[in-house]
Design a protein that fits this description.
This protein is of the alpha+beta class. 38% of the residues lie in helices and 23% in strands. α1 packs across α2, α1 runs antiparallel to α5 and α3 crosses α4. The longest helix is centred in the first third of the chain and has 14 residues. The N and C termini lie far apart (51 Å).
Length: 156
């Protein structure tokens, strides 16, 4: 592998025209295989989402799909949150129907105010409901000047 810093077209996010500047790109001189080192992928996707929601024109299908996936929602989850049918979401994401201005603003607001889903484990769901005694949770938060509030402890 020969590694050097170069600009790299980042197609894996599903957005057209995203270029990462001066990232490490390794290329195998024998087979042509390429390997890219992308530091802080979550941070990159957060920056992409922030750039998209700040653009002055309406969202295009690839941006709608990216923002939905960034939030960690399936098409059905997204449709439920938007108050529409899953078929409508599919039409927005394929370009078969444009997203209306109200839905466009709502999606931008959701991205601006909702933390992306971080834990995709379904194992947690298997344990919910076993204990039928309702109890309030005890939560402890700490503040961080840069990141805001952060959950420190949870007690059931």
């Amino acid at each position: 592998m020969t590694v050097r810093r170069e600009n790299y077209r980042y197609d894996a996010c599903g957005l057209p025209n995203v270029t990462l500047q001066k990232v490490e790109v390794g290329r195998c001189p024998k087979c042509g295989e390429t390997e890219v080192a992308i530091p802080s992928l979550e941070g990159l996707h957060r920056s992409l989402a922030q750039a998209i929601i700040r653009k002055p024109s309406r969202l295009v299908p690839a941006e709608i799909r990216f923002l939905r996936k960034y939030l960690g929602w399936s098409g059905a989850d997204f449709a439920a949150r938007m108050g529409t049918a899953a078929e409508t979401v599919s039409r927005w994401e394929t370009g078969a129907a444009p997203m209306g201005p109200t839905a466009d603003r709502l999606l931008r607001l959701m991205v601006a105010t909702t933390a992306p889903k971080g834990d995709y484990s379904l194992d947690v769901l298997a344990t919910i409901g076993r204990d039928l005694t309702p109890r309030p949770m005890r939560l402890s938060f700490a503040t961080d000047r840069r990141a805001g509030w952060r959950l420190e402890t949870v007690a059931a």
